[in-house]
């Protein structure tokens, strides 16, 4: 049998990188030469252009979690098999994301709770609001922990010592000077500019990985090979695997099931799109999720083809600390997480105000109160552990699949709903299929988290 080598797929990584470069060039062209500000029809409030909304969605979807995808491939899944899984999840999650915009259009509402209350029972609407609230708490807490740890390392790299180099001090500094000003913004349009910067930072991370893959700095005899720990050195004992699947493939499935989560902000994204319509929103979502999908495919390919089965859960940890180019990548991902925090926090604040039915007069107090809780939690805890992972698996499946399916079912049954929007097939069979997929992901996600915690040998993972 012919052994596949890491260099055999250079064409694949170059193609994926070229697609991202073309997409960014097109977005820049549209932003510079065809950008027009507009106002919505309800209150004269400026909305987001399609390009601004696309960057906000991409930044909400693509986070630091992309750095764990190469390990999902290395754990026992063929690269091409994993790529097909990624394409499937991108299509499924993009469909349910755009579905929320269509539900908002039909109901005339701007939140999961209000949409559900319009077409179903109030208790179900309240349950959705509570689940969204809990999920976004975990999301923001995870972001805050990453920010605290990343910038503490950056400060120490810059020579800062003592209490100012602790994770708590780093987080407090970032909170006062960056997070508070960003989180106080009511309009997501303003955050689109920081989202653009964050997206560029994430692209830079994968671009630097592409350079190191192409120049061979980490192959045996390469510039940085001898500076790596033994466990971080590339391992291609069995060659590059293309189509293999094992029980450990469920680790990648678990990662992908949460990799495209941004659905808690979908209603707000739709409501703040200029001249919003389901068709216009659908086009933006297709562009955003396609961009995110290519980023995921790119980093999976480059990370795995550079380090093979040695790829760590945080792929940047594989690279040498003496590699200045990869140090810039660590800076970039840290700032990208900072710019992602306000978008996740917006979902948290909106879900809390919806759950407890708070008016806009409480905007400032809710913002400062929630930020205080999140920051205190991140200063006290540095590992969310089993509860966070299990909660993410369960709540993520509910928010991305089960809730949209339920809303589709009820909205399609309403006699006064726009029948041309859903038709007869979608509210029944399509809703059932999406809900079933959500239940399967919920069950498998929970099982995988528990197995990783208590029976890692069953997944062929290190204990």
Automatic annotation (TrEMBL):
Primary subcellular site in the record, as a coarse category: membrane
Topology with respect to the bilayer: Multi-pass membrane protein
Keyword terms: Membrane, Transmembrane, Transmembrane helix
Subcellular location: Membrane
Protein name (Swiss-Prot/TrEMBL): Sodium-coupled neutral amino acid transporter 7
GO CC terms, sorted: membrane
PANTHER family (alphabetical): AMINO ACID TRANSPORTER, TRANSMEMBRANE AMINO ACID TRANSPORTER FAMILY PROTEIN
Transmembrane segments: 12-29, 69-92, 128-148, 154-178, 190-211, 241-264, 284-307, 327-345, 390-410, 430-451
Keyword Transmembrane applies: yes
GO MF annotation: an example: L-amino acid transmembrane transporter activity
InterPro entries: AA_transpt_TM
Organism listed in the record: Cladocopium goreaui
Domain of life, source organism: Eukaryota
Domain Amino acid transporter transmembrane: 49-447
A matching Pfam family: Aa_trans
């Amino acid at each position: 049998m012919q052994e596949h080598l890491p260099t055999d797929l250079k064409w694949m990584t170059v193609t994926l990188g070229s697609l991202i470069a073309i997409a960014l060039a097109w977005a820049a062209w549209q932003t510079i030469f065809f950008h027009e500000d507009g106002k919505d029809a309800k209150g004269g409030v400026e909305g987001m252009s399609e390009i601004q909304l696309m960057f906000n969605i991409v930044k909400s979807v693509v986070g630091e979690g992309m750095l764990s995808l190469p390990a999902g491939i290395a754990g026992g899944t063929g690269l091409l098999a994993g790529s097909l899984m990624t394409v499937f999840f991108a299509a499924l999650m993009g469909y349910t994301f755009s579905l929320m915009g269509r539900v908002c259009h039909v109901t005339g509402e701007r939140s999961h709770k209000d949409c559900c209350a319009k077409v179903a029972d109030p208790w179900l609407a309240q349950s959705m609001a509570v689940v969204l609230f809990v999920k976004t708490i975990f999301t923001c807490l995870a972001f805050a922990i990453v920010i605290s740890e990343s910038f503490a390392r950056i400060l120490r790299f810059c020579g800062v010592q003592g209490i100012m180099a602790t994770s708590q001090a780093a987080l407090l500094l970032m909170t006062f000077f960056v997070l508070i000003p960003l989180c106080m913004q009511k309009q997501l349009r303003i955050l689109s500019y920081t989202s653009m910067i964050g997206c560029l930072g994430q692209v830079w991370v994968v671009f630097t990985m592409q350079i190191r893959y192409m120049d061979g700095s980490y192959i045996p005899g390469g510039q940085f090979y001898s500076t790596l720990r033994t466990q971080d050195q590339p391992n291609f004992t069995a060659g590059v695997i293309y189509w293999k699947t094992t029980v450990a493939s469920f680790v990648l499935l678990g990662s992908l099931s949460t990799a495209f989560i941004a659905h808690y902000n979908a209603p707000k994204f739709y409501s703040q799109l200029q001249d919003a319509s389901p068709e216009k929103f659908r086009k933006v979502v297709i562009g955003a999720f396609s961009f995110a999908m290519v980023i995921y495919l790119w980093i999976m390919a480059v990370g795995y083809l550079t380090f093979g089965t040695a790829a760590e859960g945080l792929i940047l940890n594989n690279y040498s600390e003496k590699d200045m180019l990869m140090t810039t990548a660590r800076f970039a991902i840290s700032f990208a997480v900072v710019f992602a925090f306000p978008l996740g926090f917006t979902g948290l604040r909106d879900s809390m105000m919806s759950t407890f039915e708070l008016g806009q007069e409480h905007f400032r107090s809710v913002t400062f109160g929630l930020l205080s809780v999140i920051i205190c939690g991140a200063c006290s805890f540095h590992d969310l552990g089993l509860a966070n992972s299990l909660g993410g698996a369960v709540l993520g499946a509910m928010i991305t699949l089960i809730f949209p399916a339920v809303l589709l079912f009820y909205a399609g049954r309403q006699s006064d709903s726009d029948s041309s929007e859903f038709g007869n097939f979608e509210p029944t069979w399509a809703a059932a299929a999406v809900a079933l997929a959500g239940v399967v992901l919920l069950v498998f996600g929970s099982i995988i988290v528990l197995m990783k915690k208590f029976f890692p040998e069953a997944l062929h993972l290190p204990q």
